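## tool: complex_structure
## caller: assistant
## args:
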Amino acid sequence: MTDLALPKFPADFAWGVATAAYQIEGAVAEDGRGDSVWDTFCRRPGAIRDGHTGDVAVDHYHRWPEDLALMAELGVNAYRFSVAWPRIQPAGSGAANQAGLDFYDRLTDALLAAGITPMPTLFHWDLPQPLEDEGGWLNRDTASRFAEYAALAAQRLADRIELWITLNEPFVVTTFGYGLGIHAPGKALLLDALPTAHHQLLGHGLATAALRASGAGQVAITNNYSPAWPASDSQPDQAATAAYDALHNRLFTDPVLHASYPDLSAFGVREIAGVRDGDLAVIAAPIDALGVNYYNPTRLSALPDSELPFQLEPIPGYPVTAFGWPVVPAGLTEILTTLRDRYGELLPPIYITENGCSLEDAQAADGSVDDDRRIGYLDGHIRAVADAMAAGVDVRGYLTWTLMDNFEWGEGYHQRFGLVHVDFGSQRRTAKKSFGWYRDLIAAQRG
Ligand code: FCB
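## result:
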């Protein structure tokens, strides 16, 4: 599968890696950082596998020069990281904490000096705890606070940032964080979590305006997408699949691209509580790019007499990652062509802002990690991107998840997604075989 040469991508295609603040930085009490909902959630007994926390993570806050050197060696020309809101506004509002901004300022300058385009995400799930104490994303005011924070970040960095990403995967915050309670802030409200979708989207719209007013260049939002496949061709399974598709693939995209919410009547929802006149116009402010995160498809069957009208079914016949996620590269082509067919001219250029796999990457006695399966995963998915581009989808970049093993949310340090192995005790970084493969791929694309 990896023997055939990859097609040639455009010369200005972005080849990168992605990370997120809480998963890598550690240093949770340094330089004035405040608590985030993840600091709180990690202390809840039983919330995170084996009681792991992001207190130290992979110590990137101190070791970032070493991590940047790894990226330079890899040859990437783009790096997606996230800015920790609680470093910039420890209380979630008010003046900026300059020491927090200094960290991202230094990182930005060093990336540019290394020829790597910084691509910051403003919210990758680490909401300041004081805002959660006021209701978090259930509270409309959080949307305005987010725009205020975006402006503070832009005032410091906008002169050097080409592309800003507002939110990462608001679907996961709404469903896992507020709907099911398996992510921070750990609320299990089921459909009563829907206002958090609207408030995040409103935050995206208000932040987009604030970024533009602060001189920002391009603005994007990153959503995760998953082809929804019916478990059978029965009418109930097809309806369950359409319902899931609306929730996962449309709820956070329709409002942004065409100023309306998808039909949620399958959930008994006529309209989302809290939507006011004018909100959808704010949310639908033009964006310059769409970030697409893709890991796997979802297969569904009907679940009658339940608040959620579907249940998730296994997808047999594919290899699975350490997380148990099926490896289906064609699903990435499917989601990209579906987006194009669904939104047509309204669809902006796309960046694949995350794609990768967790494996049980054991180190051999000499320290090496032969992660051939990751190479196969990446190869297959990059080909899937090429297929979508050949079918006319405008994709501008591919950023793999992730540079180095890190804190994987509810799974703690148990899922390794990195191109670089990290020994979590010593913090020693060791390039895996896939690192060399990706380096060679990027070099060949440039050559
Ligand atoms: C995505 C998250 C990212 C990482 C990957 C595996 O949902 O955005 O932080 O955890 O999954």
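## assistant note: The chain has one domain: 14-446. The chain is about 40% helix and 15% strand. Handing back to user.
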